[in-house]
Design a protein that fits this description.
five-stranded mixed beta sheet, two-stranded antiparallel ribbon, 51% helix, 10% strand
Length: 267
C-alpha cells in the first residue's frame, strides 16, 4: 500500500512528462478487451498530462510576475542606497567633516597560483574556500574567520570588494548551479527554485540580491553557486610573486575596489 501511495504521488508530480502513444483502431472492427483498457488508460493519462501542464504554466506565470515585482523593488533599494551615500558625502563636505565609508560586507576571492611547491596548510585552506583550480573565484562574507583564512593563503590569491555591476556580470555570464553535485548552467528559474525555493529564492535577480546584500541565506546561495571559472586576465598580471600593495607593484593580496577592474578583464 505504501509503495502504491509513493507511486501515485510521484506520477502526479511527473504527469507533464508522460509519453502517451496513440493506439490506431479501425472503425467498426472488433477491439480486443486489453486494447480497450489501454485506450481508456491513455485517455486518462492524457487528461492528467493536460491538467499538469496547465497547472505548471499557471505557477510559472505567477512566479515570473512575483520575480518581476521583486526585481523592481531590488533596483529601487540599490538606487536608494547609492543616493543616501551621495547625500551623506555631500553633507560631510559642506560641514567640513570626513565621511567614513561603510565597511564592506562582501568579498570576491580569486586564486592566482597553481599547486606546485605549495605547503599542505595553504593547500587545505584553498580547498576549504573551494578554490581548487587556477583562476577559480568565490563570493565570501567578510568576517574574522574568513579574514584569518585569507591571511594563510595571501600569496596565492587576490581579493577585494565587488560592485553590484561586477556581481551581476559574474552571475549572468559565468553562473552555474550545484545540483546533485553536478555543475548545471542556470538556464531556467526552475533549477534555482528547486534548490533554493525553500529560502524564497526563485530567480537570478534573487541570487544577485542575496549575494550583494549578504542576506540571511548568503551561505546557502553561495554554496549553490559553483565556483566561478574565470579566464586569464586580458593584458595579463603584473607580477604574481609580489603583493598588490608593494611599492614595485604586484598581484596577490587585497586590492579592495580595484578587484572590479581585474574581474572585468577576467570575465
Amino acid at each position: 500500500a505504501q509503495g502504491t501511495r509513493h507511486w501515485s504521488r510521484r506520477s502526479a508530480t511527473m504527469a507533464e512528462r508522460y509519453l502517451i502513444t496513440k493506439v490506431a483502431t479501425v472503425e467498426g472492427a472488433a477491439v480486443p478487451e486489453l486494447v480497450k483498457l489501454k485506450i481508456a488508460r491513455d485517455e486518462k493519462l492524457a487528461e492528467e498530462k493536460k491538467a499538469a501542464i496547465e497547472a505548471q504554466k499557471k505557477t510559472r506565470q505567477e512566479e515570473r510576475a512575483k520575480l518581476k515585482e521583486r526585481t523592481a523593488a531590488y533596483e529601487k533599494e540599490y538606487a536608494d542606497n547609492a543616493a543616501e551615500l551621495v547625500k551623506l558625502r555631500r553633507e560631510a563636505k559642506v560641514n567640513g567633516n570626513f565621511f567614513v565609508e561603510p565597511e564592506a560586507k562582501l568579498l570576491f576571492v580569486v586564486r592566482i597560483a597553481g599547486i606546485i611547491k605549495m605547503s599542505p596548510k595553504p593547500r587545505k585552506v584553498l580547498q576549504l574556500l573551494r578554490l581548487k583550480q587556477l583562476h577559480n573565484g568565490v563570493f565570501l562574507k567578510v568576517n574574522k574567520p574568513i579574514l584569518n583564512m585569507l591571511k594563510l593563503v595571501q600569496p596565492y590569491v587576490t581579493y577585494g570588494f565587488p560592485s553590484l555591476k561586477t556581481v551581476r556580470e559574474l552571475v549572468y555570464k559565468r553562473g552555474f548551479g550545484k545540483v546533485n553535485k553536478q555543475r548545471i548552467p542556470l538556464s531556467s528559474n526552475d533549477i534555482i527554485s528547486d534548490s533554493l525555493g525553500k529560502f524564497g529564492i526563485h530567480g537570478v535577480e534573487d541570487i544577485i540580491h542575496e549575494i550583494y546584500t549578504v542576506g540571511p541565506n548568503f551561505k546557502q546561495v553561495s554554496n549553490f553557486l559553483w565556483p566561478f571559472k574565470l579566464s586569464s586576465p586580458k593584458g595579463g598580471f603584473i607580477n604574481k610573486r609580489h603583493g598588490f600593495c608593494e611599492g614595485r607593484g604586484g598581484d596577490w593580496g587585497n586590492r579592495e575596489e580595484l578587484i572590479n577592474d581585474l574581474l572585468r578583464r577576467m570575465n
